[in-house]
Amino acid sequence: MIRFGTDGWRGIISEDFTFHNVRLVAQAIADYIIDRNEQRQGIVVGYDARFLSRQYAENCAAVLAAKGVTVWLADAILPTPALTWQVKDRQAAGGIMITASHNPPEYNGLKFKAPYGGSASPEIVAAIEKYVHKLEAANSEQPPIADLSGVQYFSPQTEYLAHVKAVLDLKTIYSFKEPIVFDCMHGAGSGYAVALARELGINLKEVRSEYNPSFGGVNPEPIEKNLRFLQEAVTRNHAYSGLAVDGDSDRIGAVDENGRFINAHQIIALLAKYLIEKRGWSGGLVESLRASGLIKSVAEKYGRKLYETPVGFKFITEVMLKEDVLIGGEEGGGLGIKNYIPERDGLLLAFLLIEMMAAYGKPLGKLLDELSLEHGWFYYGRRDLHLADRQKKALMESLALTPPASIGTSKVLSVQCTDGCKLELENGWLIFRASGTEPIIRIYAELSTSVELENVLAGAIELAQSM
């Protein structure tokens, strides 16, 4: 059965993510649009740099066209936020992006973008899933497809980069002359950063920008374990910082001038401080799953409201649509800001970090150290464990029914199992959560010292593997 996770539908290529299933989902989306009488508003279709992504996108376009839906199809690989802007600008009924984002190379996927220019709400996703399951239950034959002669093509780069530039303080960023290394991770952002940097006069060097559907053997997720190449490139090139985007360029990663990894919690806190102090922006802060102590401290200092949401940027999007939000983000690097679409955008956030460094005249590492001296040090870590379904189920049931009194040497104060299992510790917090797109358990923790962090993570791994 086809199921949508926290951000669309994903599966292993040629196992469950097949041309037949892709066409079935496209037909379900067409039926959803037609029943809402929005077929003339149309659907925008795009694709990332993964194996067969273009062919999957063309199949979606062909199914939609055969159903009488107006279709715009990208003429090249593009970042997810570039597609989202096309949906917004064209006032389309929605958008289909063929991507598995940061997943391993054997995966592909499909994201549906809503007319407001962001992740589809849980209600929209549930409605589309009903159409999918109806087609599955009927054991529908291969949906009819049209040739692509009636499909309209678009080139995304120029318009998208104009939207990114519109948010930036160009006077400040034009003054920045320090060298930057930008890691494309062989993804859809390749070529976009260097094109924008050229327009802005920034000394930026792209790495891992070649087309490589295997991503060089490294998952295209900009977390610390996947950014060793960037860390080495920064120190080798004596760069001011290193910035990275994921497979579809909607997530951000960063390393400082010494090659030290800067996590998403720290990026949110740094940018919140900058946008409040230097740009004078209003709004609260949003973080999914569990807000970092650093973000809480920054929110308290500036009197900003702090929102916590379940996992999935669609929940952050909901808050951004309803409330005055300055910045919202996920621990994996998916961040969105106000005065833009309610969507993650790794490229935009990367250039905002460059703008921030230009405004303060300091590199990322120095800015983070100053922030930490003011608000305290918070040590965050994440581990991903491959566990059998039986083990995952046993672990989550055990945590809910008979939670441990301690993890490592840290006492457990309370346990809440709603969106994963969250353990409040005497010196921090720990979370176990089953991935919605991969067969793994993710373990997240934040402690007051690095020694405590490693101790808790080791204890959490031992507990999970004992199931």
Tell me the CATH topology of the largest domain.
Answer: Alpha-D-Glucose-1,6-Bisphosphate, Chain A, domain 3
Shape: globular
Structural class based on helices, strands and sheet pairing: alpha/beta
Helix content: 25-40%
Strand content: 15-25%
Q: Flag low-confidence runs.
A: none
Which homologous superfamily in CATH is the superfamily of the largest domain?
A: Alpha-D-Glucose-1,6-Bisphosphate, subunit A, domain 3
CATH architecture of the largest domain: 3-Layer(aba) Sandwich
Taken together, the total number of domains comes to: 3
Quaternary organisation? single chain
Descriptive account of the structure:
Helices cover 39% and strands 23% of the residues. Strand 20 and strand 21 form a beta hairpin. Helix 1 (19-35) crosses helix 4 and helix 3 (80-89) crosses helix 5 (157-167). With 467 residues, the chain is of the alpha/beta class. The protein has helices at residues 19-35, 53-66, 80-89, 122-137, 157-167, 170-174, 192-200, 228-236, 264-277, 293-301, 313-322, 346-360, 364-375, 389-401, 450-465, and strands at 9-12, 43-47, 71-74, 94-98, 107-114, 118-119, 152-154, 180-183, 204-207, 241-245, 252-255, 261-262, 284-288, 306-309, 325-329, 335-337, 379-386, 406-407, 410-418, 420-425, 428-434, 440-447. It folds into three domains: 9-155, 3-Layer(aba) Sandwich (Alpha-D-Glucose-1,6-Bisphosphate, Chain A, domain 3), CATH 3.40.120; 159-375, Alpha-D-Glucose-1,6-Bisphosphate, Chain A, domain 3; 379-465, TATA-Binding Protein, CATH 3.30.310. The chain starts with 8 loop residues before the first strand and ends with a helix. The strands form four sheets. Strands 1, 2, 3, 4, 5, 6 and 7 form a seven-stranded mixed β-sheet that branches. Strands 17-22-21-20-19-18 form a six-stranded antiparallel β-sheet.
